[in-house]
Amino acid sequence: MTRLTSTILISMMLILSLTPFPIGADGNVRGETERGATTREWLKLQASGAQSSPTPPRQPGDAASRTYQRYLKSFERPIAESYFSDQPGFVGK
Known about the structure:
Layout: H1 3-18, H2 37-48, H3 61-73
C-alpha cells in the first residue's frame, strides 16, 4: 500500500468510528423495527399536553394588534373564483 492509500484508509476508518448511530432507550443500536418510534413518542407527548405550558405564548400588544388588523383587512377583497386562472400557463378544467 502506498502512503497516500493508507492515509486515506485510516482517515475513513476514523470518520466512520465517529459517526453517531441511533441508540434506543435500552442502550442498543436501534434497528429497523424501531424506526419511527421516537416520532410516535413525540406525537403522543404533544397530544397528551403533559409538557405544555400553563400560560399560552402571547404576542406583544402592538404586534398582536397589527396582526389582527391585517387579518380583518384580508376580508375586504372578494374571494377569487380561481387563484391561478389569470396566470400564464394555467391549465383550466
